[in-house]
Structure formats: C-alpha cells, structure tokens
Amino acid sequence: MTLPLPSVMLVDDHPLFRQGLRMMLLSSNMLQADIHEAGSVTDAVAQEHWVNLVMLDISMPGCDGLEGIGQIRKRWPGAYVVMLSGHDHPELMRDAVRQGASGFISKALEPEAICAQVQHWLLRSLGMEQNIHKASGRSLTPDAKPHAEVLPLRQYEVLKMLAKGFSNKAIAKHFGLSEHTIRNQVASILKHLGADTRTQAVLVAQRNGILPATAIK
C-alpha cells in the first residue's frame, strides 16, 4: 500500500509569489509533498485537501493571516501554521505566535533558505524533526546548507538584534527580559551556528540565508 505524500498549503494573495514559491519548492531537494495553493484563508479552508503544513501570508486583504490562524487551526487541527512576511519585525512575530502560529519565515530570505525552512517545518509536522540531522550534522537533503534550518523564534529575534549591533542590555530591555536570559539565548545562537563570536554568528547567518544581507550593519 502506497502512503499518501505529506501536503503543504500555500496561502498568499499574490499569485506570482505563490506560484513562484510552489515551483521553487517542487524543484528543490526538500521532501516530496503535494503542494496546494489558495489566494485567501476562505479559499484555503474550503478545499478538501488534508494538509500537514500551512504557509500563511501575514498580511492579506479582508481576513489577513493573523486573523485567519484560528480558521486554519479549526479546519486542520493537527497542521503546523508558519507565517510568511516581507516585514520580519519582532512585534509581528510575537503577534503571530500569540495567535497560534508555529513559526515565522521572512520573504526576504534567499530562495534556498526558504526551501530549507519549509523542509524543516514539514519534517516537524510529520514528527520527524529528530531526523533533520544525522550524526555528521548534515541535512537529510544532500545539497542543503548545514546551518540553513530555522532557529527557534526567540533566538531568531535576538539574532536580528545582534545583526543591528544591539548589546545584550539593549536587547534585554527591548524584549523585557533579563540580561542573563539574553546571554543564554546568544550562547545558544552561537552553538547553533557553530560560531565563536557574535559577529561571526551574524556572518554565518547571512552566508546561509538565515538573515538577509541588508540586516548586517
């Protein structure tokens, strides 16, 4: 018996972006998946497909992505919902997570990095996140960059602040956290990226598409 392929739903009101992302994912080395499209949350939830992962634009006319997270979760209770946005501000990211999003991907990332992050979330939705890396540290996809996988949301926010030159004290004040917490987050980021310094971590993130080049000050 052949098992059905995992399914991804792309929800974005811009057909060119949606279709371009679909073609990019189909041509990449990510896990094989059925990829469906919708121009709105209403169109998405009206489709008959069962989906494992929903890639949802954060800003759309009418019912936008943030408002639509609840509808998506009601329609597909077990699916992961990952937001897409051209504006990766920490406030937007926090709002998305508060309303039930699993994660956040910036449209400003390089295509290869977006594909790697979609693969990451698809693996997580299938309960296969422990298999993202083998003992060698390589991705399941042979040509994927070793550090292209997504960071946890909070660490990604902190990394963005590091790229802008903020100190631990300033970052702690921005997020309303202690400096000790931020130091731990920075240490985790350095370990995740295999970097020895903050500057090196930002450069590694830039090189591997986790941060857009414009984020480096």
UniProtKB/TrEMBL annotation:
Residues 144-209 form the HTH luxR-type domain. The keyword DNA-binding applies. PROSITE patterns: HTH_LUXR_2, RESPONSE_REGULATORY. It holds the Pfam family GerE. Residues 7-122 form the Response regulatory domain. It comes from the Bacteria. GO terms for biological process: phosphorelay signal transduction system; regulation of DNA-templated transcription. SMART domains: HTH_LUXR, REC. The modification 4-aspartylphosphate is found at D57. Keywords: DNA-binding, Phosphoprotein. This is Response regulator transcription factor. One of its GO terms (molecular function) is DNA binding. It comes from Comamonas koreensis.
